[in-house]
Amino acid sequence: NLIPSKETFTILISQIELVEVKNSAMVDTVNGWFKPPIPVRDFLAGFSHLGGTHHSVIVYGNEIGIICDFGKIMGWKVYEI
C-alpha cells in the first residue's frame, strides 16, 4: 500500500495469503480475499495506525525484500506488517 504525504511516501508491505472466494454472489465480480500473517485485528490496527489507504497492490511471489529495497532507494518510509 503506497501512502502519499506532503513530504514523502510511505509503503506498507505484508506477506499475505490469497484465499478462494466462496461467496457465490461475488464470483463474477472483481474482488480479492486474503489472510494476513498475523491475526486480522492486529493487522488492521497496524495498517490503520500507519495510514493504510483503501486500495492496495498484490504482487505474486515473495518479493518483500525487493519492494522494501525499492522503497528505501526512493527515500520512502517502509514498514512491514
Beta-strand share of residues: 15-25%
**Parts with pLDDT < 50 across at least 5 consecutive residues:** none
The H-and-E topology, N to C, reads as EEEEHHE
Shape: elongated
Number of strands: 5
- End-to-end separation in angstroms reads 11 Å
Q: Profile the largest sheet.
A: 3 strands, mixed
Largest beta sheet: what is the strand line-up? 1-2-5
Helical coverage, percent range: 10-25%
Count of DSSP helices? 2
Judged by helices, strands and strand pairing, the structural class is: alpha+beta
What is the CA-atom radius of gyration, in angstroms?
Answer: 14 Å
Question: Average pLDDT across residues?
Answer: 90
Question: Could you characterize the architecture of this molecule?
Answer:
The chain has helices spanning 40-49, 64-73, and strands at 2-4, 9-13, 17-19, 33-35, 77-80. The longest helix has 10 residues, at 40-49. It has a three-stranded mixed β-sheet with strand order 1-2-5, covered by helices on one side. The chain is elongated and about 45 Å long. The chain has 81 residues and is α+β, with helices and mostly antiparallel strands. Strand 1 and strand 2 form a beta hairpin.
Question: How would you concisely characterize the structure shown here?
Answer:
The protein is built from 2 helices and 5 strands; from the N terminus they run E-E-E-E-H-H-E. It is an alpha+beta fold and 81 residues long. The chain has a 3-stranded mixed beta sheet with strand order 1-2-5, with helices on one face. It has a two-stranded antiparallel ribbon with strand order 3-4.
